Each structure stands twice: as structure tokens, then as C-alpha cells.
Amino acid sequence: MKLPIVAYGDPVLRKKTEEIDEDYPKLKETIANMFETMYAANGVGIAAPQVGLPIRLFVIDASPFGEDDEDGPGDPTAKDFKRVFINPILVEESGKKWAFSEGCLSIPHINEEVMRPENVIINYLDENFQEQEEELTGLAARVVQHEYDHIEGKLFIDKLSPLKKAMLKGKLDNISKGQVRVSYKMSFPLMKKGR
């Protein structure tokens, strides 16, 4: 089932999330719904807060970044990179920081260059609650860092300069008020309050 994606301005996007265990209600269904929601919105990752759940869970399918296109060859680190991350811990970020234009399903129509380290080591539980630890690089590492920020209550726009954030303020305000057109279902915080 496609879930509404929570828009910028909703407090759930700024909460540090809670760990879950195997008894979390309807976990498999939640994971399946998150993938379906992400695919319907043409995303490569989505975190639980983006569907209104303050839990430490995100899903990624970065495969589109691994495909060749008119701009050239895809990133091999992203090819076949589909994962479920439960209670992840970012163990280490390392390497040179590099810029990449990031966007977010909760902040539609805004893409900005964000600097992030090129490598990460992440420890997590998979959908079967098996412990995993992976060392990632390139776009796979970047998507993990972006989604990990979500479960820490952070957004990619937090990494922008104060000037850039000030320039985006009007657009961000419009998103929180529901004054944005998207091809997927969204939940807008200020519309909930009847403003």
C-alpha cells in the first residue's frame, strides 16, 4: 500500500527515532509499504519518519544509480544495492568529502549540492533481524548517509550554508503549507492544523 509521504515542516522529521524489536506491529507490511511508496515516488531511499513513523528503519534501492544513461556509466557501488536497515548504527565515515546533488521526497523540487564523506561502515539488522555490517563507498554510501540522517532527525538542507538556506526559505515554507505539486501522495503539516 502506498503511504502518504510526510512533508517538510512536520515535527516527525526532526525527531531522533526509537529502536524497534522483532515484535514491532506489522513490520513486514510496513517494510513492503515503504518500498512501494518509494518506488511510486521514484525515490531510491525512504526512512520511517518520512511515512510518519518515529522508528529506526529505512529502506534503499539505489539500483537506478547503477544503470548507465546518457550522462555516462552508472555507479557500480549502487548496482543491485537494495537493503532494509533496522536499528542501524553508523560506525564510521571516512575518505574525502565529495559533492552530489541531493533531493528528498519530503522536500520536493529542491535539489542542492551536499558534501559527504565517500566511505561509511554501517552496522544494522536486516529484515530477518540478522546482524549485518557493511563497508560502503560512492553513491551507496551517500544514500545510506542521507537516510541515516532522517532517523537522527536531520535533513539534507541542514548541511547547506546559511545563505543557501535563507534563499530556499520561501520554497520550504510553501512545501510545509502544501503549496507544491507532486505525483505522489503527501501529508502536509500546516494543512493538518487547518491553516
Notes on the protein architecture:
With 195 residues, the protein is α+β, with helices and mostly antiparallel strands. It has a single domain (5-192), classed as Peptide Deformylase. Helix content is 26%, strand content 31%. The protein contains 5 helices and 7 strands. Strands 2-3-4-5-6 form a 5-stranded antiparallel beta sheet, with helices on both faces. The longest helix has 15 residues, at 162-176.
Question: How is this structure best summarized?
Answer:
It holds the Pfam family Pep_deformylase. The chain has helices spanning 27-40, 63-66, 138-151, 162-176, 189-192, and strands at residues 5-6, 45-47, 57-61, 82-104, 107-125, 131-137, 186-187. By secondary structure, it is of the alpha+beta class.
Order of helices and strands: EHEEHEEEHHEH
CATH-level-2 architecture: Alpha-Beta Complex
Q: Major sheet, described briefly?
A: 5 strands, antiparallel
CATH class: Alpha Beta
Shape: globular
Number of domains: 1
Whole-number radius of gyration? 16 Å
How many individual β-strands? 7
Strand content: 25-35%
Low-confidence stretches: none
Can you identify the CATH superfamily? Peptide deformylase
